[in-house]
Structure prediction request, 243 residues.
Amino acid sequence: MAEALPRLDTLQTVELADGVEIRLRIAGPILRIAAYVVDLAIRIAALILIGVALSLAGVAIGENVAEGLVLLSYFLMDWFYPVVFELGKRGATPGKRLLGLRVVQSNGSPITLGQSILRNFIRFIDGMPLFFYAFGLSSCLATKRFQRLGDLAADTVVVYDRLAPMPVLPAPPPMAAAPLTMALTPDETRSLVWFRDRAGLWSEARRAEIADQAAHLTGATGQAGVTRLMAIAHWVQEKRKNH
Prediction:
């Protein structure tokens, strides 16, 4: 019987510099288009209200000034509307917030001012040709993280923001504890316990890399060293509890 193909999933694992793994649920183009339509409707409604208000004020400030302010409002709304909201606490425009999305860096961190400006100013190219967003949509469909050209340039992604938190538990203790064979300083003991408590946050390769630094204590490297170090850490923790 042929093996079943893995299901398409937008949940992606990102390993940070300290070895901790985080998971990002990448948003696809359909939901992003819906968020854009919502934001477009908000911007149009805001511009209509501003236009009406400035038209009424045109008698006092002059028609030319009113027209200039309308054009300025259009410019600011078109280019800086996303930037202002993406730099907020939620990292998302009202349309994205409504649909449970947010913009982050590819490592899951909040985006910076420079990244937000870059990704939104390149939206003009994404919108080509003739504002049909053919370039942006093609880029989304061609990249693993559904990144349009602006996202690729700014190293950003759009992710789901309403996922239930995934609990990360410490790695399970070994079947048997292994006593220490040498004396450790208080700092070394704390580091050992810290390794035990944090091991569940790291990838297997990262655990092995850290455990290799304690090969003088475990007498092993690689996965064998990880197992031995976990056993020693478990013994230290049990000893602490009993005292």
